[in-house]
Structures are given as structure tokens and as C-alpha cells.
Design brief:
single chain; 386 residues; alpha/beta; Rossmann fold; Dihydrodipicolinate Reductase, domain 2; 2 domains; 9-stranded mixed sheet; 6-stranded parallel sheet; 11 helices; 28% strand; binds alpha-L-sorbopyranose
Length: 386
């Protein structure tokens, strides 16, 4: 019997569009999948640019209206790689049209929108997944297996930091990521959402938070052009309407405590997404800037040899690693997107829930919102249940 095909439509073709395109282009070459993704159509607002993008990345066609994409009978999966303000409308329309939906993070601006998206996907009976790609780093997936197997015992505290520096220069011009109406939040939503998702993945649900946010540079040169994390200034200046940094403390539902820090203002830190989790029997630590390594300390190692050991998570038995290269032939950022695409395809092919689903995406938005409530009230805020 020939393998079923899954026709993919990608909305957005900038930084995330490239990351998703390379995933769709490579995933079936490395993973043994039970459905064959087909790069059917890519959609973006600039007709000439998106057509060029389609040719370069191997999409069969391109268009400029996402509504057209959602209405097509020959599309099975809608992959949303656009800024946050567009997610809800596209995801709901796609689900209602019976398409499976893959959506960039953070899932939505507000918990209300996130719930709407989750409900639309659930009632349409389609698969839904948020692209929290760092779950798909082999070393992070290994940490999850080790925590679940009790290898560090009961988790007591955990710290999550996500530091970047691309906004340190006050002359760096505006782009959509610095506008509340397009991005929702600044570092809090963009980077904090990853940290929260990793915390929920590895430690569990968060019950209460207290935090603060800060915008250090409140006005920047106006936007001329921008692409990915680079931008060229235009005329005049524009007000920054999101945070540059956010910090918060958290109480996990199971009793553990945690701290979170997200900033784009940490000189020298490029994509320093790091966690350290301390349990009753050991600790685990990981940082994206050295993503193939998981540091593990076990209290019951023999005293003389006790110390953090570095596991290179590239052995065939490590999560995802067996699909790629021989041990030690390191993996990078792009692999996380391919690994996510593989999981989504298999979930669809086997009619299983994809993870993290829109419910998990909504729980993350609930934590982001609770931090905002705590900032308004100056007190601890409970995380709303979904
Ligand atoms: C920019 O801060 C950014 O591209 C985020 O939007 C991504 O989610 C993160 O993975 C890398 O940094």
C-alpha cells in the first residue's frame, strides 16, 4: 500500500518560515514516517517575495491570502509561522475547515484567544500542536525521561533563564517584536513562553507567580526594513510598547519552587536558554548554547568521583538522535524543528494527540497573564486553570 500524503500549507516565510520549511523539506529523509509531508503551498503578504521563497525552498506554489489557503481542499495541515496577533484567526479558521494546525509560540496574546483556539481545534477533531521547539532538543527530551524515571528524585527547585542581547544597542530599530499590538509581549512572551513551557514539561504545572517587567529603552529608531532578528532604520523614532526583560518567581502545583528570567538585554548572551533543576537525589542542567550536552549530578555516585558529568545526547538511544548522525556528530537549532515535524506527522498518521497541544499552549499563556496580574497587584497571582 502506498504511503498516505499530508499536504502542508505554511503561512509566513520569514525567520520561522525558513525554520519550518527546512523541517518539512528534510523530515521524511531522516525519519521513517507513516505519512509523507508534501510542501504544497506557502503564503505571505508580498507576492513577489513569497513566490521567490517558494522556489528557493521547494514549495509547490505560493499565494498572498491565508483565507485562500484554509479554503483549499488539497491542504491537510496549516502551519502558522506568523506573528502572534494573527494566530487566533488563522488557527480557528483552519480548524473549522478541518485542517490540522501547527502553530508558533506563544500560542496567543490572551488566555481567552488561546481557549478559543483550543476549543475550535478540539470540536473540529483535528490535531493541534504548538511549536515549543526546545522540547525537541535531544538533551532536553532526555532530561524529561530522567526526571520521569526518578533519577534526580523529587524536584525541589528549578531555575529557568532565557537571555539574548540583540536589543542592547539603543539604535537597533523597531520591528514587530517591539510592538504590543503585533507581538503581545516582549521578552516575557517571546522568550518567557519557552522557559515556562520547558518548566511545565520538566517539572509540572505552575500554580502561583509573582513578577516584574522592565523596558529599558522606551523609544527606538523607526523601522525601515527588518528580517529575522536584524533591522534597518527608517525615518524618525517610535515608542517601544513591550518589555525588554521579565523576572518572576513561581510555586509549582506539586510543591517545587522556581525562578524565571527572560531578557533581550544581556550582552554576550545570544540564545542562552538555560535551566537547572535540583531534586532530592541529583541535579540536571542544560543550556541551548551548548545544546547537545546534559549535565547530570547524582548524590549516590561514589564520593571520590562525585561531580557533574556531561552526557553528550547524541547516542542512538537518546531521543530523536537515532534518526540523525552517528554519536558525537552534533545537532543544532534546525533539528529541533524537524523533530517537531516528525512528531506531528506521526500523531496525525496514528490518530494520536500531538504534544504540546493547544491546551498546553493555553496553560503557558495563563502563566504569562498571571505574571502580568501580579505586576498590576504587586502580589502573588494564581494561574487560571484552563
Ligand atoms: C527571538 O527572540 C527568537 O527568535 C524567538 O522568537 C524564538 O522563539 C527563539 O527560539 C529564538 O529567539
Amino acid at each position: 500500500m502506498s504511503q498516505p500524503t499530508l499536504n502542508i500549507a505554511l503561512i509566513g516565510y520569514k525567520f520561522m518560515g525558513r525554520a519550518h520549511s527546512q523541517a518539512w523539506a528534510t523530515v521524511s529523509k531522516f525519519f521513517d514516517l507513516d505519512a509523507q509531508p508534501v510542501m504544497k503551498v506557502v503564503c505571505g503578504r508580498d507576492g513577489a517575495a513569497v513566490s521567490e521563497f517558494a522556489k528557493r525552498w521547494g514549495w509547490q506554489s505560493s499565494c498572498t491570502d491565508w483565507r485562500e489557503v484554509v479554503a483549499r481542499n488539497d491542504v491537510d495541515v496549516v502551519d502558522i509561522s506568523t506573528p502572534g496577533y494573527t494566530h487566533c484567526d488563522i488557527a480557528v479558521a483552519a480548524a473549522q475547515a478541518g485542517k490540522h494546525v501547527f502553530c508558533e509560540k506563544p500560542l496567543a496574546f490572551t488566555l481567552e484567544e488561546a481557549r478559543t483556539m483550543r476549543d475550535a481545534a478540539k470540536s473540529a477533531g483535528v490535531k493541534h500542536m504548538v511549536n515549543f521547539n526546545y522540547r525537541r532538543v535531544p538533551a532536553v527530551a532526555l532530561a524529561k525521561q530522567m526526571i520521569d524515571a526518578g533519577e534526580i528524585g523529587e524536584v525541589r527547585h528549578a531555575r529557568f533563564t532565557y537571555l539574548q542581547d540583540w536589543l542592547v544597542d539603543p539604535q537597533f530599530p523597531m520591528n514587530w517584536r517591539l510592538r504590543a499590538d503585533a507581538a503581545g509581549n516582549g521578552a516575557h512572551g517571546d522568550l518567557g513562553s519557552h522557559a515556562i513551557d520547558l518548566a511545565r514539561f520538566l517539572v509540572g504545572d505552575i500554580a502561583e507567580v509573582v513578577g516584574m517587567k522592565k523596558t529599558f529603552i522606551e523609544e527606538r529608531p523607526a523601522e525601515g526594513t527588518s528580517s529575522g532578528l536584524t533591522a534597518v532604520a527608517g525615518e524618525g523614532t517610535e515608542k517601544v510598547t513591550v518589555d525588554d526583560a521579565s523576572l518572576f518567581l513561581a510555586k509549582f502545583a506539586d510543591g517545587a519552587i522556581g525562578s524565571f528570567e527572560a531578557t533581550r538585554m544581556a550582552p554576550g548572551r545570544k540564545n542562552y536558554n538555560r535551566f537547572e533543576i535540583n531534586g532530592s537525589k541529583g541535579s540536571l542542567a542544560w543550556c541551548f548554547e551548548d545544546l547537545n550536552y546534559l549535565d547530570f549530578y547524582a548524590t549516590d555516585d561514589p564520593g571520590r568521583a562525585r561531580g557533574f558529568r556531561r552526557i553528550i545526547a547524541t547516542e542512538g538511544e537518546h531521543p530523536y538522535a537515532g534518526a540523525w548522525w552517528p554519536p558525537g556528530h552534533m545537532m543544532g537549532y534546525d533539528h529541533t524543528f524537524s523533530n517537531a515535524a516528525a512528531d506531528l506527522v506521526q500523531a496525525i498518521a496514528h490518530d494520536k494527540c500531538a504534544s504540546p497541544c493547544f491546551g498546553a499552549g493555553a496553560k503557558c499563556v495563563a502563566v504569562l497573564e498571571a505574571v502580568d496580574k501580579s505586576i498590576e497587584s504587586g502580589a502573588w497571582a494564581a494561574v487560571e486553570s484552563i
